[in-house]
Each structure stands twice: as structure tokens, then as C-alpha cells.
């Protein structure tokens, strides 16, 4: 019988911020270990400042951890995201790992439908087909058709978030990191997101998320990690593993 290997194996992961102005170290989190398999959904919990966003950004490699490993089984083989070269990280971000926040990076004079279609076009889909799908997902998330050709830099926060979700979820990734993607969404868009995540999970996408309304995704959760309260340590304690 085939045993399925984890898609992601996090071992003893820790992240510390050096707070120069306070001459102190802030342990955003430490000793985080878990396995995540294809099709699994992990909920990150914890009060404000518990380190949820920092953990997601560390997995996405916006931050380098100070200790631990992030073993990721990519299509090309095993790679430790904690140590991988930037060029490999850039490739994985394009092809395998997605990160969704509540904020759209709205570029000036790019229409909503083009922003959403872009990941498909970059992946080699024909322009017309990419646009068709983009319109489909804009509609799903409740962006009104008269806005599809408009520039999202002028949209409301909620509308921008819908465009952001459509873009982020149009092309299925293997690992999806979600940081409060529903914070300012209306009920209809939240329902659309849950439907999309349900389908992605069923197709084998592994998902790690922080949710403003965890009840929305209750049906999807396989596991939860509650991030313990952080500690601020005296600077004299350790300064040998400061973040690079
Ligand atoms: N770039 C940074 N530099 C210094 N401290 C940071 C930085 N990013 C986050 N922190 C601190 O780390 C802690 C965890 O933050 P965060 O991960 O955003 O919490 P959460 O998402 O759980 O609300 C907070 O105390 C925050 O102030
Ligand atoms: Mg956060």
C-alpha cells in the first residue's frame, strides 16, 4: 500500500525579531512543528500579535526563520524553504505556492479582468480563455460586470479584496497560504470563497489559513495550531541567531 508523504514538513521553526530601539529580541514564534498533506486544511489561531501572519510570511519566505526547517515536496523534489535560494523561491511562488492577504496590489491603469487573468496568461493559457475565466471568477466573487474593465485602484476595499481573491485562486496551486482573506468581505463573497476552497481542497491543494470568521471554514478544517503568546527576551540572553 502506498503511504502518502507530507507535502510540507515544518520542524522546530522559530522566528525572532531584533528590536533595535528596545535593545530586545521579540520571539514571534518558536518550536513550530507540523506535517501537512495534499488536500489538508490547517487553521492557525491565536490572538492579535500571536505570530500568525509572521508564520505565514516565514513559510512564504518573506522572512527567514532563525531556526528550524520547512521541508516542501515540490514537483522537482524536496526543498527546505528555510534555506532555499531566492531564485528557487521565486519559481515556487509562480508555480506551486500561493499567498493571499486581504490586500490587492492594484497597479495603475490595469483593468480588473487583466489583473485576474494574468496568472493564467503567464502559465501559457490563450489570452481569450484567460479573460473568460477571469470574468467567471470576478462574477463568482461578486464583482459587478460594469467594473470588470475598470481600474481596481479606484475600487472600495471590499471590491479590491474580491479582485485579489479571484486573481489568487484562479490558478490552483499545490500549497495555499491565506492571511485573513475575508476580513472585509460581504457574506456572498465569503460563501464564494468557501466554495472555491472546498473545491481546491478536494482536488488536493493543501491550505494553511488564518480566518477572521473561522466558522466560515469549519467544515474544511483538518487540524488547528494555536500560537502561544510570544515572549520578549532580554537582549543579553541570545543574539547569535538574529534574523539575516
Ligand atoms: N517586521 C517586524 N519587525 C518587528 N516586529 C514584528 C515584525 N512583524 C511582526 N512583528 C511583531 O511580531 C508579533 C507577531 O505579529 P503578527 O505575526 O503580525 O501577529 P498576528 O498575525 O498573529 O496578529 C507582533 O508583536 C508584531 O508586532
Ligand atoms: Mg495577522
Quick summary of this structure?
The chain has 244 residues and is an alpha/beta fold. Helices cover 30% and strands 26% of the residues. Helix 6 (187-202) links the parallel strand 7 and strand 8 (206-210).
Describe it.
Helix content is 30%, strand content 26%. It has 244 residues and is of the alpha/beta class. The chain has a domain at 39-63 and 87-226: P-loop containing nucleotide triphosphate hydrolases (Rossmann fold), CATH 3.40.50. The protein has a five-stranded antiparallel β-sheet, covered by helices on one side. It has a five-stranded parallel β-sheet with strand order 6-7-8-3-9, with helices on both faces. Strand 4 and strand 5 form a beta hairpin. The longest helix is centred in the last third of the chain and has 16 residues, at 187-202. It starts with 7 loop residues before the first strand and ends in a 10-residue tail after the last strand. It binds adenosine-5'-diphosphate and magnesium ion. Magnesium ion (MG) is lined by residues 52-53.
Average residue pLDDT: 90
Overall shape: it is globular
Strands across the major sheet, in which order?
A: 5-4-1-2-10
CATH superfamily of one domain: P-loop containing nucleotide triphosphate hydrolases
Q: What is the CA-CA span between the terminal residues?
A: 44 Å
- CATH class (first level) name of one domain: Alpha Beta
